[in-house]
Amino acid sequence: MALEQHQSSFPFHSESDPIPIAPDLVSGVFKLSDLTVFCQTEIEPRCSKELKDPVLIDVSQVKVWDISALLWFAIALQHYRIQGLSFLLKFPDEPIRSRDLPVWQLDAEEKAFCKSRDFLRRWRFVRALKHVCDPADILLPEQSQYFDILPKRFYGEGKSLKLEDGTTEYLLTNRLAEIHDLTRIEGTSQLPSISYSLIEEYVRRFSDSQTWNVIAQNCEVTRDDAQEFVSSLVGESLDNMHQHPSATSGFIAISVLGNTRELILAVVDNGYSISQTILDRYNADFKRKHRQSRLNKLSLKERAKIIDYALQPHVTSKKGDPPKGDKPFGLGLDHIRKTAVKTFKGKLRIVTMSTQIVYDKDHYDEPEITDYPQPWSGNLIRISIPLRKGRR
Length: 392
Description:
The protein is α+β, with helices and mostly antiparallel strands and 392 residues long. The chain folds into two domains: 1-145; 164-392, Heat Shock Protein 90. 33% of the residues lie in helices and 15% in strands. The chain has helices spanning 32-43, 67-82, 108-122, 126-129, 167-173, 196-208, 211-218, 223-226, 228-242, 274-286, 300-309, 333-343, and strands at 19-21, 29-30, 55-58, 64-65, 87-90, 180-181, 183-184, 193-194, 250-257, 262-269, 347-352, 355-359, 368-371, 379-386. Strands 6-9-10-14-11-12-13 form a seven-stranded antiparallel beta sheet, sandwiched between helices. A three-stranded parallel beta sheet has the order 1-3-5, with no helix packed on it. Strand 7 (183-184) and strand 8 (193-194) form a beta hairpin. It starts with 18 loop residues before the first strand and ends in a 6-residue tail after the last strand.
């Protein structure tokens, strides 16, 4: 659903040809780091008053999509659309030479571009694009029906698949991996918001599908621990999203990143940052006087400290002493970190308020921190879990 109530929704009209801009990729992989560099070096300058020429955002050379970067890209596009940037999108497509060839006759590069195209279609990226505007307004004329065609070569639907055939195939068969829009317009509001009922439905579908069985087979965990994937990682990540005020876009998706042999769970939203959500509590506990309007002016170290504080046990957005009893409460991030890093031997990456923090086995109590310039509001949670040798 296009968010026409609070976003500009103009069709693309220009007397001049759009200026092509493209990310500089290593080996054709579109990662979070590539996205921020691309935005800072190519898109941000085009948002200035002096440079209002239309642009062609060319991602047609992407061979592999990190699902977290793809979802974050959609949030970024939404921001630039609101800022008035006029742009078209160019996506990967099948090389002309290979269109009549069977898959086994394709060379490595032709196969990569076919898979990249089919990935966007099969993961329903159009659902995220609809939060930017009507996709028809920003697709090239020759790609106007890009998302109307279902994959035929890769990630096809309707196949008979066994559990041991692979994590990706199983999750796709059960429609769990693809991008899910977790917003809807409810009540008297004209704007969408994160829907807790949609979150509950998604978590229930995961539980009913016995995905934990597949996780146990494909990741380095026991069957008992694998059940934590649904309750601790999927459930807690979505519950955390629900606690971010003002979010009008929220997505979850899962993918296997073959070049790093990881299962990726990505959750993104465009609401208030985690830092904004807990700032009052942080100020009260640490006797600080940080203001919401000045958060992005703080040093990287201080910004990271606020985010890390949100991962401590029993931290919520509310002031005061924690309630009595053993029932867990808070933002859920501490439980996510513990499960992702200690149970699944993976990594937890959080991007918010122009800050990226990463927790892994070597950085559990003191995360790696880096600047991540981000002119848009929102939060990204990326959980990566290593696969067993030989799994895909």
